[in-house]
Amino acid sequence: MGFRGAPVFRGVTPLNLDAKGRMAMPARYRERLEKSCGGQLILTLNQEDRCLWLYPLPEWEEIERKLTELSSFDRHTMRLKRLLIGHASECDLDSAGRILMPVVLRQLAGIERSLVLLGQGNKFEVWDAASYERKVSDWLSEDLGEASEAVKSLSL
Q1: Measured distance CA(48)–CA(58) in Å, rounded
Q2: This prediction's pTM
């Protein structure tokens, strides 16, 4: 278990969707997801990158609460709410450990068959495999300029 008692998700896992658009959750995560959220997950858009975010329900509820408390009169806030809350879909693990990924979310993220599940601590990112490979190449060659103070103070 990680921060706040939530499970920690890490690592890169290549996967394929089945003919019905279901993704099999890797076995190493299934028990953690059953314990932490009863297999109830939320899949939504990442507002910055062309990928999806997959949250255990309790993690998502905290984020959704924070988002709904934000003003409805700010353009940036409304954009964020529309993308994150408006596209949030409930995806429960079935008895075989799979989740059905809604067609609209798969299309928006460009996911057809091959995908990558990327652990991000409290959530997963779900990428189209080819897009992920291009993005990793970009990340590795990107000049980020001067690091923020928070990053500078980090010791690994």
Answers
A1: 23
A2: 0.88
